[in-house]
What we know:
Number of strands: 0
Radius of gyration: 18 Å
Distance between the termini: 60 Å
Mean pLDDT: 80
Number of helices: 4
Largest sheet: none
Helix content: 55-70%
Order of helices and strands: HHHH
Low-confidence stretches: none
Amino acid sequence: MIGPGPGFRDLPPCPSNTCEVQATSRSLIVDTLPVSEQQLGSAWAGRMLGLGHVLGYFAGTLDLRQYFGNALGESQFKQICVIAGATMVCCVGVTCFCVGERVLVEGR
């Protein structure tokens, strides 16, 4: 039986909820933008997602232990997980702060 390596259980929880964040972000585009701007909003979401992938790939090529030491973790993977998680929390926090709810249907 093939399974994860011996150190697999020692890894920190990496931001594995990116699918949930992407799904709610895309539904936020549908809920907040008028129909005429939803395609443009979805295109910008795709661009920002691609930029995040490129920046994450670039961070993987750097020797993060040289810059952060062991402050964010003792391996490159753990440090990238911490950076990605913090970035995701910041971006979602800004979105939550900036987007307000609107009542589209009045209660009876």
